Amino acid sequence: MTAHRDDTGRGVGVVAGLDSPAPADPRQVGRELAASGTILRIDGLRTYFHTDESVVKAVDGVSLDVPRGRTICVVGESGCGKSITARSVLGLVDAPGRIEAGHLWWHPDPEAPAVDLAALDPHGAEIRQVRGGQIGMVFQEPMASLSPMYSIGDQLVQAIRLHRPVSAAEAKELAIAQLARVGIPQPERRFDSYSFQLSGGMCQRVMIAIALSCDPALLIADEPTTALDVTTQARILDLIAQLQDETGMSVMFITHDLGVVAEIADDVTVMYLGTVAEQGSVTDIFDRPEHPYTRALLESVPTLGQARSERLAAIAGMVPSPDDRPTGCPFHTRCPSVMPGLCDVTPPAVRQVGDRHEAACHLHDPDVERPPVPAAPAPNTATLTGAEDRSPAVAPDEAEPLLSVRGLRMTFPVKKGFFGRTVGHVQAVDDVDLDIRPGETLGLVGESGCGKTTLGRCIARALDPTAGTIRYRDPRGGAEVDLAQLEANQLRPYREHIRVIFQDPFGSLNPRKTLLQLIAEPLRHIRSERVDSSIEDRVAAMLRRVGLRPEFMRRYPHAFSGGQRQRINIARALITNPRLVIADEAVSALDVSIRAQILNLLSDLQDEYQLTYLFISHDLSVVEHICDRVAVMYLGRIVEQAETEEVFQRPGHPYTEALLSAVPVPDPHLRGAGRRIRLADDLPDPANPPSGCPFHTRCPHRRAERCADERPLLQLSPTGSSEHLAACHYADELSLAGVADPLS
Amino acid sequence: MTQQLPPAGPAAEPAVQDVAPAAVSVASQWRLMWWRFRKHKLALAGLVVTATLYLVAVFAGFLAPYDSSHLDPEYTYAPPQRLHVVDTSDGWDWGLYVNGYTAEQDPETLEIRFEVDEDTKVPVELFARGPSYTLFGLIETNIHVIGPADPDGPPMYLLGADRLGRDQLSRIIHGTRVSMSVGLVGVAVAFVLGVTLGGVSGYLGGKVDTVIQRMVEFFMSLPTLPLWLGLAAAVPTDWGPLARYFMITVVLSFVAWTSLAREVRGRFLSLREEDFVMAAKLDGVGRRAIIFSHMLPSFTSHLIATLTLSIPAMILAETALSFLGLGLQPPVVSWGVLLQEAQQIRVISTAPWLLLPGLAVVVAVLSLNFMGDGLRDAADPYRR
């Protein structure tokens, strides 16, 4: 339907540099590229997917230059065509997709003529020589990218021998050297390991080793750290930067994380819906964003050190589906400074707005009269409750805790063999004490595998804890009960008090139920209410409250996007009017702009329904933005617990310090400013935790005495308020660095 | 299960954001499945043929010119006749007829050879009167869709006759009834067994699971043919054809439930870990409701596809058993029983039309398989 829209009109403006008539001479282009120091020029690339119903224009006229020896970051929300652009470069676009137009001028050797990769046969020998040999690629899922059938050494040797004429023995030596180069300890031994024996970070190192095995001139990294923990991410980013220094290769880094961009980029390209919205140097993009989309993206990211009461500026709506592109400027449907009659009709041209800085927006069109109101970012949801300070209604110190966890343990048996003999135990939650006060938002942070989710599920009694008590007191009257001791039947009344919002917006909604059935389910089952019109009314009201249309009630979840599904999840959690909501990584799977919408919605709802949140997340900037207090978990134990500001400004535990220093700050001027603490990749085996302080194997402040044999207890940290607990022997002697205050 | 399209409401309320303005039309799961199924041409053809076969089974008495026991010893191994629609012997005229036979006995072998006699005409008419039968077991009638105009005159053998001069076409049509339904009944029994045992095994896990899985492995390790032989031999010979028929289906289903049980168990094991099951548990949904209203519906469509694919296996098993003389016995007519006639190589060389029931089996099995494949592809909710 949308396939036949005016193609020529768009082509004129968006594709920069297409003014020169088409069949370009490779030598001429080669000289041009050599003069401008460009190794890869993507010129007017269009990659379309032809499906039965329509043509999906995944990449629609992208032009960008990858400078020699530097790092270019491609950012944008999911569905913006970032990955397809990278795959097009390597000829890896699967059917039914194909490159429709444009050039991919590849120019590794400044003396030789440039090669148009788009003109090569995607299965031919030439592109295979480039792919892997001259351009290396690293993907998002390191585990999935390595074959479990071969040892990592075999895969590395194969990659080397494909592109270099060396013997097997030489290749093995090269491979071991390569493993050592990417920082894998004991490379001779690891050579024979399989991917499933290594952690995600290690696998990503192996992937980088494979990608770099033939000294490529360009490394394309497609979200290489998205699936990794923040501590591992920091080390992988360091590794890529270090390897770039050594080899002088160029890096094209695809990410949605603006913090990562600020950390590593030299140049930035912002993509939206298959087109380039803005490109420029990293300082230009962060300091002088010219496109409304770039501006909105930057504003929707919570930053470490940002004042907590601020609302996030969310971008309205969501990325349209690429097979239903808006006419005119692709961003006009969400743009705060849209000019009706222009933006929705004519696609904007790419214009220079500074030195090597260009944006595709009508606001920079000299012929266009600017609207009287300048492009103020519309705080579209701020009208709902206003932006008053969300301090908890009840003074935290005096209030009795809503929920008080004492000595909670959750042990999973490790079974082995034919008869399922128990050979060991994993202490997923190990002796945790935690108080949650009414009206507050308590953040629970830590690396993956530290037991955050298990703790949350124990509190919701989705799991039966092995030992310990979970005392709960209904703030609206009612006696104190120990949830850990209740049987399934006795638990039922409390199921409506404590609700969970799950991480995965796709897996947590039964695809066979309508929204009405899903949202009304707790009412029907917990309260045994009959489905009648009053329930429908309440579901409709709740849908409206979370920002969905009540008419959607009879639809199935597959018709909704990730952000909308998370709204459905929230509606389902809140329909019972709960006291405590456990949000288990509730925004981790969402794009930045959608994440800001959901975070704003969560805080509005907290005020409205007097909710208490247990906010489980690995994203520290989100936690700092939304939480009143924070508990840090490591290997099933809580190592630090204090008010958010305390934790982030004056951390009391070395682990917290390391976590904080690993978070990339979305400000290129702070790059390398803070003290960098890098933890070893591997979390110790939770079935066999280290003796003494569990963190001593990775702790940069480890001391010879006590740490390895005496287990530290949570005690008052002398650094700050009376509320600050930390489990470190030397908490009072260490001076640990928190987040640099951007104001100071 | 059709979904009403919600009325395209007026402008959304100001508070409502994050809503795509374009109306997303709603289709139920079954309709989506049908849309995907329709794209699979071979499966669609399979569906048409299968539906036709079941229609034939239902209207067997009406479609067959004779009943299954009609015999005419004068016409043993009579070859198929060609049905003439246009009478050209005497100018051009419409006229439905078949040519008669001239019988000739070989003086040496005493074998009777039939030649089609171009001169004699046996008139045939639509909706002819013939032997009486009851339609749906209720309405007694003697009208057949096609048959010789004179019921007492020379017979009509469109697909030839067997050793007793029985009409092969009529018997194949009557055989459709048993052959196509033996699969259904058997699959139904196997389905109940498989889903129950597999579901219990997968949801409860632990010791129950171990016991059931060992049982499944035991049944799977038994060589099927000797097992059938043994079980069929255990059926008393003096039972009537109906009781025997029922026992055979039960025998077949006892072997067939195992693979289904495994599949259901696997599905349950993976679904148990899904977030939406956890969510339902936290919504206070009881264990039974979780199984029946959350877990089972998420793979009913898949189960239907599996069922469709297991019917042909049943049909083949029945055919094989009956062919060996261990399944159904005459006078019951099934394709397998008909094929018993074609056991001797000499018979096949003189009367190859006796293999036609085999062709019917092939057509039925292929069309059910194509249909099942199409259903399986269409039922997968995560494919485009």
Outline:
The complex is a heterodimer of chains A (744) and B (384). By secondary structure, chain A is an alpha/beta fold. In chain A, the strands form four sheets. In chain A, strands 6-7-8-3-9-10-12-11 form an eight-stranded mixed β-sheet, with helices on both faces. In chain A, strands 18-19-20-15-21-22-24-23 form an eight-stranded mixed β-sheet, sandwiched between helices. A four-stranded antiparallel β-sheet of chain A has the order 2-1-4-5.
General description of the model:
- The complex is a heterodimer of chains A (744) and B (384).
- Chain A is of the alpha/beta class and 744 residues long.
- Among the domains of chain A are: 403-627, P-loop containing nucleotide triphosphate hydrolases (Rossmann fold); 641-744, no CATH class.
- In chain A, the strands form four sheets. Chain A has an eight-stranded mixed beta sheet with strand order 6-7-8-3-9-10-12-11, with helices on both faces. In chain A, strands 18-19-20-15-21-22-24-23 form an eight-stranded mixed beta sheet, with helices on both faces.
- In chain A, β13 (403-416) and β14 (421-436) form a beta hairpin.
- In chain A, α16 (515-526) packs parallel to α18 (562-574), α17 crosses α18 and α18 (562-574) packs parallel to α19 (592-609).
- The longest helix of chain A has 18 residues, at 230-247.
- Chain B has 384 residues and is of the alpha+beta class.
- Chain B folds into two domains: 81-156, no CATH class; 172-379, Orthogonal Bundle (MetI-like fold).
- A four-stranded antiparallel beta sheet of chain B has the order 1-2-3-4.
- In chain B, a hairpin with a 5-residue loop joins β1 (83-87) and β2.
- In chain B, α1 crosses α13 and α4 runs parallel beside α13.
- Mean pLDDT of chain B is 77; it is low at 1-24.
- The chains are: A alpha/beta (744), B alpha+beta (384).
- The A-B interface holds A 52, 316-318, 320, 324, 380-381, 384, 457, 460, 462, 492, 495-496, 499-500, 502-504, 507-513, 521-522, 525-526, 544-545, 547-549, 551-556, 558-559, 561, 563-564, 567, 572, 594, 597 and B 3-4, 6-7, 9, 12-13, 15-20, 22, 24, 26, 28-29, 39, 274-276, 278-286, 289, 294, 297-298, 381.
